[in-house]
């Protein structure tokens, strides 16, 4: 499988996402370039990210360029790297980075800034901090010029009879959903910038 995209990966503050794993999977899938970003204060820059890059066996024949870049969501016009890379990335992966409601607008502005024309934002989020937080992110994205190309919920624990994944319709709110049931589901979505 060959992906001919430039990637902006892991615009996340979640400590698990800060390991750069979606970026490394993208590199192994032959993305043309991958940029791993996290908050400048993240300890992952001195530990998990370089360690994971050094231990993943990316074949020498793979032309993917991997860069690591500290970035604070919403800091755009005053950050030389952000200015130089505006509208550069054809794919942005945002994984489990929606738990700070106060940062939703900065995150959405940052995604819009870096997304190339025709690009897509791939979103994956668990409901461990609550469905309302994730719903709030999607509302902010829609209010700030994104459209939802596709969205569904995936059961993290279940399989269909044929071994495939179990999906259900995305619901901003599910009556009677308790914390244990909520934790077994995640939302998967593709966002596109409205023109």
Automatic annotation (TrEMBL):
Residues 157-178 are annotated as: Disordered. This is Methyltransferase domain-containing protein. Residues 164-178 have a biased composition (Basic and acidic residues). It comes from the Eukaryota. It comes from Aspergillus ruber (strain CBS 135680). One of its GO terms (molecular function) is S-adenosylmethionine-dependent methyltransferase activity. Gene3D superfamilies: Vaccinia Virus protein VP39 (3.40.50.150). GO terms for cellular component: cytoplasm.
